[in-house]
Amino acid sequence: MELLDFVLLLVLTGVAAGVVGSLTGLGGAIxxxxxxxxxxxxxxxxxxxxxxxxxxxxxxxTGTAYVHEHLSDLRIGMFLEVATVPGALIGATVTVFxxxxxxxxxxxxALGLLLLALxxxxxARGGVxxxxxxxxxxxxxxxGLRGAYYDERREEEVRYxxxxxxxxLAVAFFAGVxxxxxxxxxxxxxVLALQRFLGLPMKVATATSNFMIGVTGAAGASILLLAxxxxxxxxxxxxxxxxxxxxxxxxxxxxxxxxxxxxxFVPVIAVLAVEVILRGLGVG
Amino acid sequence: MSAPEPPGNGADPxxxxxxxxxxxRMALVLLFGLLVALGLFAGGLIALLERASGxxxxxxxxxxxxDRDLVLTRFVHGLAQGSxxxxxxxxxxxLIATPVLRVVxxxxxxYAHDERRMAALAAVVLVMLLVGLLVLGPxxx
Lengths: 284, 141
Prior knowledge:
heterodimer; A: 12 helices; 74% helix; B: mainly alpha; elongated
């Protein structure tokens, strides 16, 4: 394939992944990753490296708006980063060791299984809030993990307090491991920690997750970068495209964003997941 | 309708809220880093396509990028020579550095507002990021 075609196709793939990722709530990297492996025959390590560049670009692009609107909770985000960052460092280190042990295929199978496990839940949730209100525990009280945001739809200030910090930290650590290992954002798990365990409203959970994803991605990327898994000729066009797709998708898609549209992508992502598993098994 | 501004400087410790300028500064850090990185990516890709028009992608996608631009001396030499891949690598560095700078800004903001515990937590995050980059990364390499 000519370089021009390769770069243009990567940018277009990034744009599509950004749009689909924002529509389904899965994030651009987890959509781009299997496409890189299957359609572009990019080896898993370089695909994971490109995935983390994608995560960093989309997190900064969407995070800017959320921070500016005071929707991201800086305090709670920083609190959970204490768990996501070591998780990402460990996850990325495990990936480097597995690749050096020539177990890339095991990583591909694990990625496919992760995709299959995440997709139905993420789509079925379809933006429906499942916040469980929490009583502040000792850590939450000591660090002042509470906040408020102005809900434009309800036209009122919504106050919240965080609780259940220990299980939230455990889930955040797992989110970091997954992010570092596969080169994805792990936003689905971060939102779970923020919403289900800390008890934050959905808007704050989503915005804070986006805010945190960049730091988790930087932790994983630093390991993969030094391991030689980040090739900018692959990562740059896909990150550029995904950032454009994610921002464009976030602006244009609210009118389309509903469960029905999300479900349209379930078969596509499920097929990608199965293909990735087959490739890992040496069948595809 | 926009969010009503809290009284005073906007800080409301009872709601865990930092003053609005802290949010503005942090958003600016993210935006600036992103624009620098994407600008370097776009410029590097255009330069690469100009120089390598008609060549196969296989020759440019390195099996081990460390051999190309991730060795410091080669990287600096590449930048001086105007190598497109060196500028793409610089864009990757900028992208990775952006959230790290955001943590630095957060640490400074919490410290400046006398939130010692949060400042300490943010500093722990920063130290872990640096340990990854300076200790763990070189070890697993």
